[in-house]
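Late entry, evening session. Most of the bench is empty. Finally got around to the prediction I had been postponing all week. Sequence below, unchanged from the version circulated by S.P.
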Amino acid sequence: MTTEITPCEGKGDNVNVRVQGGSSGAVYGLGVIGACIYYMSHAITPEQKALGFLKGLVWPVFLVKEALEFLHKE
């Protein structure tokens, strides 16, 4: 199936097409999976495993918190 795009006649407008990379979403997704595995593997009870899963979803919060604490040390 071929689609032909023709410019509008009489219009002097330029068309800008922006393509953005989507690799950061894949990296974040792998980070979420890895964090869930890490936190859940250290859990013993089902409640701790559920908490580990939730922590895995928000792992960047812990990363930024630890980075800021490290930078704030004297």
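Two things to note before I forget:
The helical segments are 23-41, 46-57, 59-72.
The mean pLDDT is 82.
Will write this up properly tomorrow.
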